[in-house]
Amino acid sequence: MPNDALINTVRETRRARRMTQADLAGAVGVSRQTIVSIEGGDYAPSVLLALRIAHVLEHPIDQLFAIDHSRLEATDV
User: Fold this and answer.
1) Which of 16, 50, 58, 67 is most buried as measured by Cβ atoms within 10 A of its Cβ?
2) Confidence at residue 4, expressed as pLDDT on a 0 to 100 scale
């Protein structure tokens, strides 16, 4: 699945919790650049990292990450 088919609300959720990218990165054990890439849609996190982000942000994972079905082609699934 291409990364452009994965949409996320990490940036909005993080900001609502008044966390910086560095705060979130430190809490989940990755670099700030990884958070930048996830928020920008350039990097799809592993399941484990997505679960860690959801836990730290205290937000359901399915509300943080979703598949944009309009961007998927039949051969991608």
Assistant:
1) 50
2) 64
